[in-house]
Each structure stands twice: as structure tokens, then as C-alpha cells.
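Format notes (please read before filing issues)

Several people have asked whether sequences and C-alpha cells are stored in separate files. They are not. Every record keeps both together, in the order shown below: the sequence lines, then the C-alpha cell lines. Line labels are part of the format and must not be stripped during preprocessing.
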Amino acid sequence: MKLFVVLFLLRLPSVAPVIHSLKVFYTSSSEVPNYPEFVADYLVDEVQIVRYDSNTRRAVPKQDWMNKITEDDTKYWEEETEILKGNEQTLKKTIEIANQLLNQTEDAGSRLIFLRYLFYFLLLLHTKIKTERVKMKLFVALFLLRLPSMAPVIHSLKYFQTSFSEVPNLPEFVAVTLVDEVQIEHYDSNTRRAVPKQDWMNKITDDDPTYWEEDTQRFKGNEQIDKGNIELLKQRFNQTEGLHFVQWMSGCEWDDETDEVNGFHQYGYDGEDFISFDLKTETWIAPRPQAFITKHKLDNNKAWTMYLKHYHTKECPDWLKKFVNYGKSSLMRKERPSVSLLQKTPSSPVICHATGFYPDRANLFWKKDDKELHEEVVRGEILPNHDGTFQMSVDLDVSSVKAEDWGRYNCVFHLAGVKEDVHTTLDKRVILSNWRSGFPTAAVVAVGLLLLAGCIIGLVLWRRNSHGFRRTNTSESSSSSEDPVVKKRTSEEQTM
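Then the structure lines:
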């Protein structure tokens, strides 16, 4: 149990949350030889699943498993085909309108291609632009239509506070602050000082000389609140002695392209949801009966509700943008990984292991020829390294792969915002293994520790959901709290 606590205290995110995506790309072109006038592509997690073009005029699956959709919707492909036929005509009209907007003709030596229908229009000049006037019109059109010069990034600011009871040789209270999953600040009940964890965080005193003193006092106050919360919750759950812990998580996310923001604010007790604030409904959600008292108090505290809404939609994003600006040279960097092929025994799967990449918006997968594999692989989660970079792995079952076919397999690493992927061909000569001489001991230890950490942390009582704690089995809602002590920068904890 102590080991679980240590792991949680250090915030070893063994199982990083997976952000899945569904993207629809419509491309319509005019006067581009040997290219369909309209193309539609559907991607799930960057994997193409549906294709339609104006030559075939049929929506077709690009992955075998997409054929399963007809089990639930027998008319899916016919209906999707008709929808895309309609969108094909719509985009043809859009090109005509855009040509009029830019006052372009065939003599201007330009061709238009529209990309990301409904979201973005990418205007590309197919041949050389002949006049500065046309260049300027193109620039204005791109600006008005919000052409994304680079992939959008969702930044995050998260505050975590954990308070323990009866845990010897560990701080009773720990607080950490993270920006884009990078720890920037630390406080615990032993040192009783808020300190920066990144060099660039020292820049904050240029704008706010009292920043660290004020944060120290805020954490000291929350430390005392949490001590009372643990004792109160022990009474509500009819508990006496033993290890118990209260967790508080608050923060926000910001899309640097759309400027959309989202906030979250929740409490956990002994590894499960206790109560959380729903920013959209401005109400408190209590999945456990013991939290009903808290819900009632918080729902009736209108001043606190108004502050939380203001904080999560205005104050928190403002601080997040400030932090991102301080650390942009570090947070916005792109680092490609070193990729290795590992194998325990000749009959074991081949592990493609990528480490040292940043940020964590990355994908690692196996391909046979030009087709991504899904059935024969086991994908691992993205894990943090001690230096702030990340690592991940994906296994390939080679038991049925013929020796002459090994060269047809490639491990591909893709990093968001980087055009060139890292390709590693399946080759017995480059595989590192502990059954073959020359296998680095450090690599064996590293892989073993990763597997051990993954197993241990998978058992931790506190599991993250989309943003927080493990859900309880109950479905009711409730909550509570005292009058807020509104501080600069982040909302304070409340007594339960």
C-alpha cells in the first residue's frame, strides 16, 4: 500500500490518457490535371478509414475492420456515398465563389485547392503567381479563412494537491503544478516552500516579484484545510485508523488556434471520485452518498460558483498563456526519438521502442508494405522520461512472419507537427536481445523497469478518467463547501 502511495505522490503517470480523434478532410480542386476534382478522407487516430473521390464516386472502407459497421448500419456505405456526392457539388460551387473573391481567371496562372471543408480552406497556387496584387489577395484570403500555419496545440494547466493521513516517512501534503504535463512548481509539508521546477519559471518574478511568497502562503493554507477534510471524511465514511488520502485537481485547457477553453475542478477520496464541478451546468456532481452534504453546501454557495466559472474561463487560461509564453522555447520544441528494436527470445514479439521524443502528441505503429497493422500488434501507452521527454513502444507478433518477408515490415514513429516520420525496418541484424551477445544491460534494465512500473501503477487505486479520478459505481450526484477564500491565480480548496 505504501508503494502505491509513493507512486501516486510522485505522479508517475504510468498510463497516460489517450486522446482519440476523428478527422474528415474534403479536398476540391480546379484545373489540376490527373487529379480527382473532389476527394474525401476520414481518419481515426490518424489512420485512414474511409475514402471517396470524384472518379470512383463510391465511399469505400480503407481498413478491414471498418466492414463491421454494416452489422449496426446495413446502409452505411450507400448513405455515406450520397452524402459525399452532395458535398462534392457544394465544394465545386465554393471554388467558383473563391475564384470570384480573389478575382482569379485562368490567365492569372493560378489553381485553387480547398482543404478541410467546414473547418479550414487551404488555398494553394498551383503555378507561379505572376503579380504582387494576386499575392496580396491570396494572403488576405488565407487570413480571413484562418489557414492554420501549424497544427493546433491544446495546452493545459493542472494543479494537483494530495494530503495523506498516517503515512510514515512521507510528506503529509504535496502540491504540484503542471503545464502541458511538465511540472513547473512543487510544494510539500516538509519543505513548506513553493519552488520552481523549470528554470524558465524564474522569469515570473520579473512580472510578479511576490509570486513565490504568495504561492507558499496559499499552499500552507490548503495544507491545513486538507488536514481537516481528511478527518471530516473519515467520519462520513465511518473510518478510524489507517491510510487515507484526499486529492484535489483543478485547471484548464486552451486551444491555441480556436482560443477555446475548458476547465475542470474536482476532489477525490481514497482513489475514487468524491465531488466535481460541472462548468457547463454550474452544478456539483456527487457520485457517492457521503458527498451529498458537500454538494448541497456548494450548490447553494452562489458566490463560489460564480468565482469558479470566472476562474476557469478567464483567470486560469490567462495564467496558462503566460506560462506557455515563459516556457515556449521548451514547451513548443520538437524532439525526435531514438528508435530501437528489442526482443526477449527468438519466439517473443519484436518490441519497437521509441524514447526521447517531445511533445507527447505522437504515434508509433507497425506497417507491412504501405498498410498499417492492427491485428498483429500490441500498442503501449506513452510514458514520461526523467528528463521531461517521453517514450512508447509497440509490439509485433513475428511468429507467423516468414524470413523472406521481414523486410516488408516497418516500425513508423510520427510526431505531430513534424513532416518526416522515423522508419525502422524489421531486421534481425539490428534487434537487441538478451539471448544474443552484445545486448546492452542498461536497455534490459530499462525495459524491465518500464514493464514493472506499468504493472504496479496499473494497480494503483487512483486511476485517471478523462480528467480525473476513478469513477465510483453509484450514479447519483451531490456536494458541499464553506465560503470561498478567493486567491490570486487558482481557486482554493474548500472544507467538505
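For reference, the curators noted about this record: The longest helix spans residues 76-102. The CA atoms of residues 18 and 381 lie 8 Å apart.
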